[in-house]
Amino acid sequence: MLRELLPPVIFTAFASLDEKKIYEVRLRRNSPIVINYGGKNKVLTFSGTNEKVYSSTSIIEYVIKQATESSLYAFHSQIKQGFITAKGGIRLGIAGESVMSDNFVPTTIKNINSIDIRLPHEVVGCANIAYKFINNANGIKNTLIVSPPGAGKTTFLRDIARLLSSGEEIYNTLLVDERYEIASCVDGLPLLDIGEHTDVVSGANKMFAFTNGIRALKPDIIITDELISEEDGDAVIRAIRSGVKVIASIHANTHLELKDKKEFKELINGGYFERIIVLSGKNGPGTYEGIYDQNFKCIYF
Questions:
Q1: Is residue 291 located within the same domain as residue 183?
Q2: CATH number assigned to the domain comprising residue 157
């Protein structure tokens, strides 16, 4: 996947590396390239040497051109949100100069000076233990997946979606993939395994996707990544109150930090989530800090 994005002279530095262990590649203008390899950050060097591999303006421009297939306009809606989803489900987080409208609404990002290339990984079975607490004889539990950034929440949610479509009972599952990370859809088709009974809405904000998805698709379950705003929390509350089960994720180091998130006060303190699963990511996706019920009582450690 990296071969199609990176200039050949840069890609040669990856020759001795196992691409399955490459999680991120960070390009910063006129700085050494840093990769996350097997969960640890390291400076990329040319194979067999200690010579650091540097990024540059031309390399960043090359990667953007490859990722957008030379059509920035086609990716305008993504770029203004700070990312690009390339073929193969690769997501590029971008930083640069934000251009704002008169109403302070972002219209685009120009003069891109750094890129975080995140490669999707499927870890089949990483959610097996948690799934027993999410789906039992009493039905599906509304569940919140908690971890710091980069600890495998997206990989975890993807495996939960797969598991929901693997049992004898069929659940109509709606996957709200706002940043094209969970299913990695290209031309509307998921490139990663999210199960056979899963509908995907990509690129839409959660309130729109939840509201219209419930009306049009009548899901039993909604799965979504990264609750960020108060509006996201409201979308979850509305779905749960309408009888739809929700499995979502949120950034936090521990379950105790959730109570400090003022924008999610009603969602967290209202007991809407019957299961809270805390991941550490210390040894990859599926590393648990603990599983808790809606009263924050530990039920698995």
A1: yes
A2: 3.40.50.300
Tens digits of residue pLDDT in 70-104? 888 888 888 888 888 887 778 899 999 999 888 77
Nearest to 145 by CA among 135, 132, 160: 160
* SS3 (DSSP) at 1: coil
- Residue recorded with tokens 């094209």: 180
Cα–Cα distance for residue pair 181/161, rounded to 1 Å: 13
- Long-range contacts of 23-27, Cβ-Cβ distance < 8 Å, separation of 24 or more: 23/118, 23/119, 23/121, 23/150, 24/116, 24/117, 24/118, 24/119, 24/150, 25/116, 25/117, 25/119, 26/114, 26/115, 26/116, 26/117, 27/55, 27/59, 27/60, 27/63, 27/114, 27/115, 27/116, 27/117
Residue 95 and residue 172 in one domain: no
Sign of the four-CA dihedral 287, 255, 129, 189: negative
Mean pLDDT over all residues of the chain? Answer: 91
The answer on 104 and 231 residing in a single domain is no
Instruction: Give a three-class secondary structure readout of 107-133.
Output: EEEEEEEEEEEECCCCCCCCCHHHHHH
Last residue of a domain, one of 97, 118, 139: 118
Give 277-295 pLDDT, tens digit per residue.
999 866 666 688 999 999 9
pTM of the model as a whole: 0.85
Q: Confidence class of residue 44 from pLDDT cuts 50, 70 and 90?
A: very high
